[in-house]
Amino acid sequence: MKIKIVCALMCLIPFGNQLYAQNINPLDYLSKKVRNLSVAGSHDTFTNGYTFAYAITGAPWNGAFMSFGGFDNNYDCQISTAYGTEPHMSFRTRNGDFDVWNGWNEIYHNNNLNRIDVDFKARNINGENLFLNGNIALGTSDVKGYKLAVNGKVRAQEIKVETANWPDYVFAKDYVLPSLKETEKHIQDNGHLPGIPSASEVKNNGVDLGEMNAKLLQKIEELTLHLIDMEKKNEALTNRVFKLEKQK
C-alpha cells in the first residue's frame, strides 16, 4: 500500500520540461462572461476555448471561433468559421518566438474553390492526370461558354483540333466550282473571299481554328482546280499556236 501511494505522489510531481495539455472548456469563458467577441482585436488575446466571434474583431468571419495551443498559449492555433450560407473556414497560427500572429488562411473545399471572389494560389499541382468539371478561365472572368478561355498568349509545341466535314467535297464531280468572275464580284462587293469571315467578324467573334482551316483548305482546293483548268487551256492554246506557226 505504501508503494502505491509513493508512486501516485511521484506522478503528480511536475517535471521541468513537462508539456501541459490545454482543456478547451467553454464554461471557463462563460464564467468570465465571454459569450462572444465583438471588440476590435479581442480575438488576438482569446485563448484556450471556443465562442462566437464577429468579423469586427479582426476575425475573417462572423461565426464560431476556436483557439487552442500550448506553451502558455504562445503558439496557439485559431479557427474561424462563417455561420451563414457560405461555408467558410479559416485558420492562423501564433509565432511565439516573435510574439506575433501569422496571417489568416482560408481552407478550400468544393463549395468555395471556384468562387470568383476567392483567390487560390498553388505553386505546383503534381499528378499524372488532372480532371476538372466545368470551365477554366485564365486572365479573365468570362469564359463565354467555352471550356477554356485565355486572355493572353498561348504557347504550345503541338495543338490538335478535331473537326468534321473536311472539304474534300470540292473534288466531287457534282461540286459547283465558283468562277473567278463570281469570286471577283464578291470581293468587290464585300471586301473578302466568299465563305470567309470579314475582319470585323473576326475581331468581334474570334476564329474557330478547325472551321477556319477547313475554309482555307476549301479555297486552296478551289484554286487548285482553277490552276489545273488554266493549265489545260494554256496547253491547248500552246498546241494551237504551234500548229498555226507550222502551217506558215
Automatic annotation (TrEMBL):
Coiled coil: 213-247
Highest taxon, organism lineage: Bacteria
Keywords on record: Coiled coil, Signal
Signal peptide boundaries: 1-21
Protein name: Uncharacterized protein
Lineage of the organism: Bacteria, Pseudomonadati, Bacteroidota, Sphingobacteriia, Sphingobacteriales
